[in-house]
Amino acid sequence: MTQVNARLAHLGLGAFHRAHQAWYTHRANLDQSGDPWLITAFTGRQVELARILSDQDGRYTLIERAADGDHATMIETHAAALPGGDHESWRSVLADDQISVLTTTVTEAAYLIDDQDRQRLAAGEAGISVPARIVDGLRGRHRSGGAPIAVLCCDNLTDNGTMLRGRVLELAGDLGADFADWVAGSVTFPSSMVDRITPATTADDLVVAKELSGWDDRAPVITEPFSEWVIAGDFPAGRPAWDVAGVRFVADVQPYEQRKLWLLNGAHSLLAYLGLQRGLSTIAETMADPVCVAAMEDAWRDAAAVLPFKQAEIDAATAALRDRFGNPRIQHRLAQIAADGSQKFPVRFGDVYRHRRSAGLDHGAALPLAVAAWICHLQTDLVKDAGAVELITALAGAAGDADRVRLALAVLGPEAADDNHLARDTEARLTELHTTGETPS
Prior knowledge:
Blueprint: E1 6-11, H1 15-19, H2 21-30, E2 38-42, H3 48-55, E3 60-66, E4 69-75, E5 78-82, H4 87-95, E6 101-104, H5 115-122, H6 130-143, E7 149-153, H7 160-173, H8 177-186, E8 187-188, E9 191-195, H9 203-213, E10 221-223, E11 228-232, E12 248-249, H10 254-277, H11 283-286, H12 290-304, H13 311-326, H14 334-337, H15 341-358, H16 366-378, H17 389-397, H18 401-409, H19 414-417, H20 420-436
Parallel strand pairs: 1-2, 1-6, 2-5, 3-10, 6-7, 7-8, 11-12
Antiparallel strand pairs: 3-4, 9-11
Helix pairs in contact: 4-6, 6-7, 7-8, 10-12, 10-15, 10-16, 16-18, 16-20, 17-18, 18-20
């Protein structure tokens, strides 16, 4: 497996990247003449996936799993798959002026920077967070000639391009004005909204992939038929013809981000925490549970009141989500969705709350239940959320549910923590979950 013709770099080689950005690039390459756009991808922390894909020359099977059957596509857009810990290769790839775009799909929590990042970068070492790793790569590009590049965040964060630009420039400023000025002038940070449900691959999926593709693929990806990608921003060194593959380029991505974060992601988090409390395992199972469905519909009504779209478009989006969530053949596990709630809650629920209050509305019906279910989840052994360690400790030491509610609401912001009406409603929902394990329909 070589890096010949790679013009794209990616950080966060995993199932979603391979079902989304790599798939769109594959489709764009099919519709264009000339050299294809290929990707040199780095894992976040994994080593094994990079080795498996390298052994397969970057090839893998993408299986679109519809309710009525599977459709397989061979994806061959990766020129190289490398472990995230290979810092020398990372610097070499980012210094290559043939690389025109760097995309990222990691987790929301990976964009947080701290003093350890600054210390490592100052010592000439690689950082830990995504912004620090990007700065580590970009300074090599700056030294090698400073060709322009676009850095495209594809994670579920509001105004993700502006967010990432700010954090990269903050770190770059510590390394000298000349470097920071180059980043500000030569590196663009488009914003994007991405959407495609991609559950974890199981052992059974490996068998299906072999039946469909005819070869022993050890890294297939399972995904739903639906996919969406909306981008706003400039690409100073060019990009694949993603538009011919269905990507929408717009002047402002924020309304689409809000629609996706508040309708799909917000509902996902609510269903995950509530569904786990009710002994369920997958999103499809929650869609057969009347209590979960009622909570989801409440969340959608709360968000619809402050979304900048006509009601007909919102109705079309929620109708599509009902079909997507109810697909019984997509085993999207609640435990997977429930991870890193401390980073997800502010953008999936806090933003809806603030927009409703700014519009003169109350906090809505769904938020108290979502926070209550999350508190219950944080008191289980299913938690995977490094950012919630202090909160979990505080919850364990709290005098009662009233204190626990205030602690959890503080994650949404001080205005939520000080909202007595919201706190009372959340405590009532928490009491219901403690006493019955469910809420009234």
